[in-house]
Amino acid sequence: METRWWKSQKFWLMWVGYAIAIAAWYASVKWLPIDAFNRLPDPWTVAKEWFSPDPDFGTSIFTPVYYDHIFYSVYRATASFILAVVLGVPLGILMAWSKTFDAYASALIGLLRPIPPLAWIPLAILLFPGIELAVIYVTFLVAFFATVMNTYVGVKSIDPDYFRAAMSLGSSPRDVLRHVIIPGALPNIFTGLQIAMGAAWFSLAAGEMIAAQYGLGFLIFESYNLIQFPTIVIGMATLGIAGYLSSAIIRVVGNRLMRWRVQSFGMGA
Amino acid sequence: MGASDKMNMTAADTTGHQMAPRPVDGRLSIQHVGKIYDPEGARVVAVHSANIEIAPGDFVAIVGPSGCGKSTLMNIIAGFDNVTEGQVLLDGQPLATPNSPPRPGSDRVVVFQNGALFPWKTVLENVMYGPIVQRKMSSSEAEQRAMDLLAKCGGLDKVANSYPPQLSSGMQRRVEIVRALINEPKILLLDEPFRAMDTVSKTVMHQHLLEMYRVCHKTIVFITHDLEEAIYLADKVVVMTSRPGTIKSTINVNLPRPRTPDMMMGSEYLALKAQVIAGVHEEAKKAFERGEREHA
Fold first, then answer.
1. Most CB within 10 Å of its CB: which of A152, B80, B92, B138?
2. Residue A5 half-sphere exposure, CB side, CA atoms within 13 Å?
3. Is residue A83 scored above 60 in pLDDT?
4. Are strands B59-63 and B236-241 parallel, antiparallel or unpaired?
5. Closest of B210, B235, B233 to residue B153, by C-alpha
6. A158 with A185: CB under 8 angstroms?
7. Residue A218 belongs to some domain of the structure
8. Are residues B118 and A167, on separate chains, in Cβ contact within 8 Å?
9. How many domains does chain A have?
């Protein structure tokens, strides 16, 4: 489709944006007469550490432990996300479909949703055997609520005429679910999934800082405790990349499922 | 006679004004129909004691000012809404009675005011939808039949793989009519389908609709607030009055078919128009004055 993307202005502006941010970082660490900033590693130190076969603080792209952290975080985020989708989408549809069920569930969700994920950690640790499930549970929660709410809104925002048209054409409730509700709500569902994925990453990192032996969140906090400042930045940057890639995957899947939107309006998920 | 035979009929097969023969099914009787919203509370009378007899194959237009209950009547026929009084019969079978829940069905397919083609399905998938969910055709049969019908209705087969939002609103409406016709409905319900269109597109759409009516002769109930369009298209114009919605008069249009745009200049047409306008104008004025009072 975009055969010469590297020639596009957008692509180069992106790199200009990165360059400015890195230059500002470098300048503030090197030249700003503030102690707090001078303690931080500059971009060059971080890059050297990150790509060093023999890193000073033991974590670089050449050390297996780096991939262990990535693996654990990705595994937890993916597991939470899949759980959130598998449970959240049907629940959102059910709430939008049945007024009775909506009345049950909305009140409960309204009460549970505002509780910050980190506030669940102590209870989650008591509740689940092992820290792994507790971290997944906490990560799952935020992603779950984002998925439920957006699915609900997605179904509610379908033009009632589509339901009438479907009924008029002889659809069974099952056909309505398959041919009207799901495709009609899909744009909102995918918006929800993007939000859910983002939410999963931030609560995951927080969860890992408090209760985990591995993972990027753990790596960041551990490096802080051990005064290994470049590794903190490596962990953060890796989280950023992982978050970006996971969103991109969702976008690609969404655009494939919603070809009609791409073709009709030139817009994707 | 099979469905496809009916479609294949050309002018030579038909008699009189080249119409396909009158269908045997599709007799609609609206008897003393009343609809009250919120009967326990506010008691909004949307339709009061409406009587309309529609013979199989008739093209009936229901005209009236906004809020006269014409859409309510349409929803009742379509089975989206129930009646609180009276009954509606389709070929002698009760379609709506005060005690039965609303029951939509593919024997009376609706074409909607704002268009309700599924935007996530291609034109072809939209047209195939009815026969497939009703399990009346296999998917290859449905595809063939859909392509056939699309081609017959002004070369719409060329856009079969487009998504509806990529088409003009006129084309979308024509596709929607094809999506209805493929189900061989007894009645085609058109709810102000050309409302949002400019005059030129509307004129084009009228010719398309008349052509579809000529080829697939079905009972048509056409809701509109446009008097000229009603007289031009229909055999019978039902004029409704507002609040409560009652039928003021029924005017038979005896203009010959095929109808052509130049008929709209003829004396017969103009006389009919004057007759209908007189009725509607009076009503619109009343409704307007009522509205003014309510907002004072």
1. A152
2. 5
3. yes
4. parallel
5. B210
6. yes
7. yes
8. no
9. 1
Could you tell me what percent of chain A has a pLDDT over 90? 64
Report yes or no on A142 lying in a domain: yes
At B275, list the tokens.
């007759």
Nearest residue of chain B to residue A187 (CA atoms)? B120
| Nearest chain A alpha carbon to B135 | A170
Distance from CA of A158 to the nearest CA of B (A): 11
pLDDT in tens, B19-71: 888 888 889 999 999 998 887 878 888 888 889 999 999 999 998 877 788 88
- Mean pLDDT, residues A124-148: 90
The number of C-beta contacts closer than 8 angstroms across A and B is: 75
Average pLDDT, chain B: 85
State the pLDDT at residue B293: 63
Q: Is A39 a domain residue? A: no
| Domain span holding position A182 | 80-265
ipTM of the complex: 0.85
pLDDT at A213: 85
**Chain B residues inside the 8 Å CB shell of A179:** 118, 121, 129, 133
pLDDT in tens, B202-224: 989 999 999 889 888 899 999 99
Record: contact B109-A169, CB cut-off 8 A: yes
Chain A: residue nearest B123 by CA? A260
CB contact under 8 A, B120 and A260: yes
Q: How far apart, in whole angstroms, are the C-alpha atoms of residue B14 and residue B37?
A: 46
Q: Inspect the interface and report whether the beta carbons of A161 and B114 lie closer than 8 Å.
A: yes
Distance, in Å, from the CA atom of A21 to the CA atom of A38, rounded to the nearest integer, reads 17
Residues of A in contact with B104 (CB under 8 A): 164, 167-168
Q: How far is B259 from chain A (nearest CA, A)?
A: 29
Read off the CATH number of the domain in which A119 is found: 1.10.3720.10
A169 close to B (CB below 8 A): yes
Enumerate residues 6+ apart whose C-beta is below 8 A from B93: none
CATH number given to B3-102+110-295: 3.40.50.300
What residues does each domain of chain B span?
3-102+110-295
A260 touches chain B (CB under 8 A): yes
Q: Locate tokens 């969860």: which residue? A: A207
Question: How far is residue A179 CA from its own chain's centroid?
Answer: 28
User: Which chain B residue has its CA at the smallest distance from A178's CA?
Assistant: B133
Residue A25 has pLDDT above 50, yes or no: yes
